TrEMBL record:
PANTHER family, A to Z: ASPARTATE CARBAMOYLTRANSFERASE, ORNITHINE CARBAMOYLTRANSFERASE, MITOCHONDRIAL
Domain Aspartate/ornithine carbamoyltransferase Asp/Orn-binding as annotated: residue spans: 146-285
GO function term, MF aspect, one: aspartate carbamoyltransferase activity
EC number: 2.1.3.2
Record-linked InterPro entries: Asp/Orn_carbamoyltranf_P-bd, Asp/Orn_carbamoylTrfase, Asp/Orn_carbamoylTrfase_sf, Asp_carbamoyltransf, Asp_carbamoyltransf_Asp/Orn-bd
Binding residues for L-aspartate: K77, R160, R208
Protein name stated in the entry: Aspartate carbamoyltransferase
Lineage: Bacteria, Bacillati, Bacillota, Bacilli, Bacillales
Organism: Chryseomicrobium palamuruense
Quaternary organization: Heterododecamer (2C3:3R2) of six catalytic PyrB chains organized as two trimers (C3), and six regulatory PyrI chains organized as three dimers (R2).
Recorded metabolic or biological pathway in which this protein acts: Pyrimidine metabolism; UMP biosynthesis via de novo pathway; (S)-dihydroorotate from bicarbonate: step 2/3
Domain of life the protein comes from: Bacteria
Family assignment from sequence similarity: Belongs to the aspartate/ornithine carbamoyltransferase superfamily. ATCase family.
Length: 295
């Protein structure tokens, strides 16, 4: 089975190939996905950007897209994810994009099903397509990431985006800094001062505070978080010349980012969303062409 489940599966050469191909597609290069293929997007967690971005990418490369609603599927009757995937395989689906709250949800059926499986996010584990579109956005700005300082700020413990980006950016030679409340530090070596980081970073990547994954009790308010770890106008003005601001979204305005900073000149937040379509087109093309060539 051809699958993209973690960013660790990709070599540096494959990463650079996908970024190059996504940029070509953005510039108008025609898609090379074989005709007549069918996709289904199995999202068991809420999503706007990833789900709709994949749907747009699938339409743009010529895939037929079967609708899937987890709340009206047989999952509500206790059907396992494996059996759902096998059902869609049986009716002829060629590629499955899956988001699921369980880490490594794909492990039980890797190698047992025919459709290409693309991970749209698993629990707090991995989000490979997000990290690839993030790197595409950075490389549009800098071309090379070797020696660039990238600071990731926020809810590290619960962030699959952070984990995927750390591996990917390290492969590309970036220097990584982390800023977070200590209780959300997880395995990351953190700085405690965002003010220190903004002055030296080429990229500030903010993470969403994932309220839905937290206990009811936490040691600070939203206002206190914003004062210490949020990006505001004062911190924006301290960013180095040519530095950019990113966020995988959705963002909590007034928590990790001030309202008037979201669309600041150095913000690439909405460009990330645009790039998500082209990167996902490149991923679909890569894995579906590979699948057809192996048959």
């Amino acid at each position: 089975m051809r699958a993209l489940t973690t960013i660790e599966e990709l070599t540096k050469e494959q990463i650079l190939h996908l970024v190059k191909r996504a940029r070509q597609l953005k510039a108008g290069s025609p898609s090379q996905v074989p005709p007549g293929l069918v996709a289904a997007n199995l999202f068991f967690e809420p999503s706007t950007r990833t789900k709709m971005s994949f749907e747009m990418a699938e339409h743009k490369v010529g895939l037929k897209v079967l609708p899937f609603d987890a709340e009206s599927s047989s999952a509500t009757k206790g059907e396992s994810l494996y059996d759902t995937v096998k059902t869609l395989e049986a009716i002829g689906v060629d590629v499955l994009v899956i988001r699921h709250p369980e880490n490594a949800y794909y492990a039980p059926f890797l190698g047992k099903v025919k459709p290409v499986v693309i991970n749209g996010g698993d629990g707090t584990g991995n989000h490979p397509t997000q990290s690839l579109l993030d790197v595409m956005t950075m490389m549009e700005e800098f071309e090379e990431l070797e020696g660039k300082t990238i600071t990731i700020v926020g809810d590290l413990a619960h962030s699959r985006v952070a984990r995927s980006n750390v591996h990917l950016l390290s492969q590309l030679g970036a220097d990584l800094l982390f800023v977070s409340p200590p209780e959300w530090q997880a395995e990351f070596p953190i700085l405690y001062s965002l003010d220190e980081a903004v002055a030296t970073s080429d990229v500030i990547m903010l993470l969403r505070v994932q309220h839905e994954r937290h206990d009811a009790q936490q040691s600070f308010t939203k206002e206190e978080y914003h004062a210490r770890y949020g990006m505001n106008t004062a911190r924006l003005e301290q960013m180095k010349q040519g530095a950019i601001l990113m966020h995988p979204a959705p963002f909590n305005r007034g928590v990790e980012i001030a309202d008037d900073v979201v669309e600041a000149p150095c913000s690439r937040i909405f460009e990330q969303m645009k790039n998500g379509v082209y990167m996902r087109m490149a991923i679909l093309e890569h894995y579906l062409k590979e699948e057809m060539e192996c048959e």
